[in-house]
Design a protein that fits this description.
4 helices; mainly alpha
Length: 119
Amino acid sequence: MTGWRIEPEGVQTVLTKVGTAAELLGTAVENLPPHAETVVAGSANSPIIADAIAGFFEFYKPTLTSIGNRINASVGGAAAATRWYLTGDETMAAEQQAAAQTVAGTGVSTFTVPPVPGS
């Protein structure tokens, strides 16, 4: 292994921290609609406020989805690349790392992982 210097324990630590932060972000995003309903109710059900909030969610939904896709792609790519690196296959590790860009754009996972030794 001359081209890569990966410490699997360090990768795991980072991925765990990213996963925790992603869960917090996901929870915050999921809790937006109930807060929006409270805002609309607090505005005496103003149609202007309701339309503005609906427009906000419609406008930012692709952005929020993209953020989630990028987080998942980063974690998946790093995990898959590390597993291939540990098997000694730097070519597959590089392919998995590169696949993260595709996953980030589409949200559809294309990662592969090596078979578990002995199976």
